[in-house]
Recover the amino acids of this structure.
């Protein structure tokens, strides 16, 4: 199988694949529940990367000038429907649902083929110096194109 | 500081302390968001342990006789209010909120002193062979004593 | 960038790329030292996968019939030369060095471009029911082709 | 069981207990090999803490004044003798073995009761701005008291 390393933008959102390794499982033989949050964070980071946002660069600005920016997760609503297992290849699908001035709500899904395993609504805020900031216009525009709310 | 290794039962719920180590943080300098799920799972596991439930034993029964039991997280609603940092000592507080036949909803809080950092409602189901099962009576009784719903 | 999802066999060994995400870093701003072990395990698992070995299948045989097999790490000698950082793309390179009847020693490297960051010698044994077993001939032959020892 | 939260100094070294939780295991049913590195890092951090060293404070100095200090792992030699399992209580024992000007070699053991599961020699360096630095005298003196090399 060949796939784009960082996934791909599609339908206003992002789609990537992850492989389940030993590190993601627990002794129940299925994937550990918090591992899905790691998979979904990879999806969000790659989505932002493909939209032109460099999180490490944003953060280094924060440290250097005290005026830089970072994304933080404010809340998540997660449903765990079915388990994933070692060696599975999962699709991590990320779509903007509600784009506001200082936060974005993303709908994220983990699927194995057509089967929905885990679904989450994730509200991400954009902060500097611990305070909420307006999202950069280019990001808001890019995400609003894919959201229900524009 | 001396503390009980597995935390303690109190007010119908459970309370334990965790220390934040390198492994729990990320390059933002704060605790990685999925690490709180690991802390809360430790709280749930120790709560069940102090109520007399041995999860490894339950699970081994499952594998051996196909009639054993396991707990699985069905859904979580998490709010991340404030960050924790390296070396912090956090209180992980777990209280049953809604005890039903085959699932329990727990309210879990991560606090640093009096400051609430993270709060989650976690619905845990009791399954065998992938199917929901009634909770053992002794657990339901123990947890109903501490819940709002009895 | 496009790359093969599971990496590729090359020069008798295996090569794959991993992206550094939040989950891999710690508050020092670099990659957490144990994260390199996760990267190297992904390399070993994909190497075995491309050689035709299905670790989940092997393990399920173990549970079912008590005659199946699993790979376990017996020892590692690791040098951490330079740090990796958020967003880095690393090459994980795995080469068999010493293929014996019941164990394999692999040389694994994590590089960023031409820069060697971490290097490990990893001895992996092949066990069933907790006891060392002879490696399947097809694996031994495949790995001896790439090792110094044939 | 009651135990000191950060473990205790003893015989020139440090000893603490850790509980094995879901997060530490993998689908093989045993503890994931890289989890032992997390346990051993907790031991090192608590050892330094009880000797009076505040790693977060050291690191914040680094960021603020470019003259602060941090500890980094340079190399590890690890033997994995026997597996640990869910719910196990492990002793993590840390002893200085070789204390030099700019680095310390620690012998770390993970035991379950009298049974040695994992043993590692870990060389830790003391750096500032990426360059090796002499260890603070108070630490060198404290650790030499417990090492073979004084």
């Amino acid at each position: 199988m060949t796939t784009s390393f960082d996934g791909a933008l599609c339908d206003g959102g992002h789609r990537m694949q992850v492989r389940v390794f030993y590190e993601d499982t627990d002794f129940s033989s299925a994937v550990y529940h918090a591992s899905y949050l790691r998979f979904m964070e990879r999806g969000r980071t790659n989505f932002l990367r493909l939209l032109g946002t460099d999180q490490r660069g944003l953060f280094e600005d924060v440290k250097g000038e005290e005026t830089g920016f970072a994304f933080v997760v404010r809340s998540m609503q997660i449903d765990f429907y079915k388990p994933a297992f070692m060696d599975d290849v999962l699709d991590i699908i990320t779509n903007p649902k509600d784009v506001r001035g200082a936060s974005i709500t993303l709908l994220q899904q983990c699927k194995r083929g057509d089967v929905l395993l885990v679904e989450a609504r994730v509200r991400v805020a954009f902060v500097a110096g611990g305070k909420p900031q307006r999202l950069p216009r280019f990001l808001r525009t890019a995400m609003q194109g894919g959201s229900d709310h524009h």
